[in-house]
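Lab intake sheet, docking and co-folding queue.

SAMPLE TYPE: protein with bound small molecule
LIGAND NAME: NAP
LIGAND FORMAT: SMILES
REQUESTED OUTPUT: full 3D complex as structure tokens
PRIORITY: normal
SUBMITTED BY: R.K., bench team

The fields below were copied directly from the construct record.
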Amino acid sequence: MRQIQFNGQKTSIIGMGTWRIGESDEKKDSEIDTIRYGLDHGINVIDTAEMYGEGASEKLVGEATKYYDRTKYQLISKFYPYHATPELIKNSLHNSLKRLQTDYLDVYLLHWRGDTPLEETISGLEEVKKAGYIKEWGVSNFDIDDLKELISLPNGDNCKVNQNLYNIESRGVEYNVLPWQKEHNISFMGYSPFGSDKNSYLHPKQIIKELADQKNITVFQLLLAWAIRNNNVLSIPKTSSVEHLKSNLKAVDVSFTNDELELLDRFYPAPIHAVPLDTI
Ligand SMILES: NC(=O)c1ccc[n+]([C@@H]2O[C@H](COP(=O)([O-])OP(=O)(O)OC[C@H]3O[C@@H](n4cnc5c(N)ncnc54)[C@H](OP(=O)(O)O)[C@@H]3O)[C@@H](O)[C@H]2O)c1
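RESULT FIELD (auto-filled):
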């Protein structure tokens, strides 16, 4: 499995997203099998959130991982922006840990920016870090101005991760967020490489289908391989199917020629100035 330096550790270049899992009895076995298959085949990052199914995703992840060595994978969860005060962070974290059947998170993320002053959120996160309930903390859906503001605050430069939308149709972070985070040693996670459920946020153009056919891969494999092409993004595709996961794992070994990348750039241009970031 290709590795990336993420949150100070060598980590698989793809993690497992878990939005919309744990919500259906019918899919439960397949979802558990999929997470276990991923862990058994070199994926060592799982991304979840208290928001996903209002705890159902964390519960499923807890069940899937309960017999695994906790030190062998990074578990990331997120809290709602309206739970971002020190007291509410403690409460949310306690509930997440319980559902996940673990006693710590590797990274705890503010899911998106809300009304609570960032100073308060940082101080709550530092408290639970000191107490050993989380190893590190980070943010999600922060643009360059949010990030700059964050690190200017007391202990703000302890932020280790920012997680944003990143796929071939949403490339805004390439302009300033990715280079800035690299410079400041803040790991980047890219979510929704396929544009989320049913490609709702990414509408593959004909060229993607044509190039995928030429390369003898699927559209999904092309999209995932593209997101991780530069080895600077930890992408977290979600799937509840072992078959799909096998296909996604194969995508990790797909590479592109410069001509292929230039062709894709023509249809999906890289940003040449700062743009408002897409989010889901
Ligand atoms: N921080 C944030 O605000 C934020 C926002 C959105 C997402 N996220 C995180 O990022 C993760 C990924 O994003 P996402 O769930 O929105 O969408 P995604 O990973 O872009 O797409 C998931 C969809 O692709 C399908 N799929 C996966 N592999 C496939 C394959 N090989 N062939 C065919 N279909 C395939 C899945 O269906 P099957 O399950 O049937 O395979 C599902 O419908 C989330 O689960 C979550 O952890 C974070």
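REVIEWER NOTE: The chain has one domain: 3-267.
SIGN-OFF: pending second check by T.M.
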